[in-house]
Automatic annotation (TrEMBL):
Cited InterPro entries: Flavoprotein-like_sf (IPR029039), FMN_Rdtase-like_dom (IPR005025), NAD(P)H-dep_reductase (IPR050712)
Pfam family, one: FMN_red
A GO term, aspect molecular function: FMN binding
Gene Ontology cellular component annotations, sorted alphabetically: cytosol
Residue intervals of the NADPH-dependent FMN reductase-like domain: 9-158
Superkingdom of origin organism: Bacteria
Gene3D superfamilies: 3.40.50.360
Protein name: NAD(P)H-dependent oxidoreductase
Length: 189
């Protein structure tokens, strides 16, 4: 269970903007599996304007940096780890999630992702469980030396059939992954 007085904070990113998305439901289940001493909060990404380098250019007076960029970057910077739950869109990560990755990667030399432990769960209504989205996301995040869990990876296929309550074996599998993620955060905190 999450503990609101916890000292280890996880920023949770949900790669779907739909309020009742499967990704959000899975994220909330995973958040509830964190051990004592960990606290997780969803960091919303739907309101972030598309990344534009002019926003980070101090000479670009015509393009002031959006406050939402600073709030997002501060939320990631202050977290001890990042946990991402994403669907697969057209064999890739959703545009909103890629935009968040890009915003967190700038300005050059100030990426908020650097060395942050990350856990990734992908899902799809198809049988492959978001395999392509997870592989693309891992590739994008690998640039930032983010410690990631290897095997077993979590690809939740036919996620629409798994919810609202995960089957026992799936919940146990996800729970073991969340525990491994928590240990990774503790190791790097």
């Amino acid at each position: 269970m999450t503990d609101t007085t916890a000292s280890l904070k996880t920023a949770v990113l949900v790669g779907s903007l739909r309020r009742d998305s499967n990704a959000r439901k899975i994220a909330k289940i995973a958040m509830g599996m964190l051990p004592a001493g960990h606290h997780a909060e969803i960091v919303e990404i739907g309101h972030l304007p598309l990344y534009n380098a002019d926003f980070d250019d101090p000479d670009a007076h015509w393009a002031p940096r959006p406050d939402s960029y600073e709030h997002f970057r501060d939320a990631i910077r202050s977290a001890h780890g990042v946990f991402i739950v994403t669907p697969e869109n057209n064999r890739c990560i959703p545009a909103c999630l890629k935009n968040a990755v890009d915003i967190g990667s700038k300005p050059t030399g100030e990426a908020v992702w650097m060395n942050k432990p990350v856990g990734i769960v992908s899902h799809s209504v198809g049988r492959m469980g978001g395999y392509s989205s997870q592989k693309n996301l891992r590739l994008a995040l690998s640039y930032f030396d983010m410690p990631m869990l290897g095997q077993p990876e979590v690809f939740l296929g036919q996620s629409d059939r798994l919810l609202p309550d995960l089957p026992h074996d799936t919940a146990e599998f996800l729970g073991r992954y969340v525990q491994r993620y928590a240990t990774l955060v503790e190791k790097h905190a």
